[in-house]
# Entry
Amino acid sequence: MFGKRIRLFSLFGFPISIDLSWLILAVLVAWSLKSTFANRYAELANNMLWAMGVAGALGLFVSIVLHEFSHAMAARANGMEMRGITLFIFGGVAEMDQEPPSPKAEFVMAIAGPIASVVIAVFCIAAAQVGSVWGWPTPVTAVLAYLGWINAALAVFNLVPAFPLDGGRVLRAALWYVKGSLRWATRIGSSIGSVFGILLIVLGVVRFVAGDFIGGMWWFLIGMFVRNAAQMSYQQLLVRRVLEGEPVQKLMHRDPITVTPGTTVRQLVDDYIYQYHHKMFPVVDDGHLVGCVTTRDVQQVPRTEWDAKHVEDIAADCSGTNTIAASADAMEALSKMNQTGKSRLMVVKDQHLAGIIALKDVLQYLSIKAELERDLDSKQAGHKEAARIGGEED
# Structure
């Protein structure tokens, strides 16, 4: 979902980051607000109008952080781990690595965000009203009023029962509670989310044709995002159900290609990189994993020093981003690959290299299992149909 992210700060242990795409939203909001305020308060200076626009954009930033922070705190209270909060062009998201453990946990986590937005809306609107009575400067009350109404709008929009919006998660929690099937509930919620996304796309096209180019394009893009996110959410659930509980050791290569610390850089390039076409190789010394070496490490060494430099001179400690415990499951490995951008992980057991798991191995396993389950489902359906026909003939 995200491209380049910038970490800003931590809030109660949750890393707060912004995707670079959010800067586009911030500029659009500031520019749009400046134009709106200029129409309503023509007597104000241009610099003041821009200051109000920037203040409104910053206030929106804080509002979205508090909305997502509420989700994160509710998730933590229900035993779910959150990786952090990231703001991007369509708002923000509290990132979690697992599905909620129960319908109640899903409901509490989902409803926490809209409640936070409603509280912010009430506070800002009340403050704007009080400020008007007490004679606060117009720029202050105008920005507060904007933040109040935009938070109210965010709460209403997020409560639409279309997954993965908050309202869709509330609906999924209710369906999950009634039916007892998270998969079924997610499929229904995602289908509604896809339809809602299409409606937003159509609305965007209508507004674009009517002459509202910016508004039309904005609704079109939001619709595309909602539709894609709805479809991806169901697919991710299916993937998670297949991979969770499947040990990494089941999918890994048990005899990976390794290099020793004494290997020269030239030998590494000629005998390993060019021959096996891997971008990362484990460095093993007497059976112990001591690090890893990558093609990026090789690029830092001048070609004239390839014979003099050894792997031990350029290898790095890869225990954080490039390794995973042998006791982990395949879903954890896939999540780590997604977080770090690594396509291969070293599987470690008691400081020894147990094997290598690659993204292509995980995808191949998914493909094979999906094909087998389709065949089994078809056979089961055939057996049921045969039994039904046999019963009718009797």
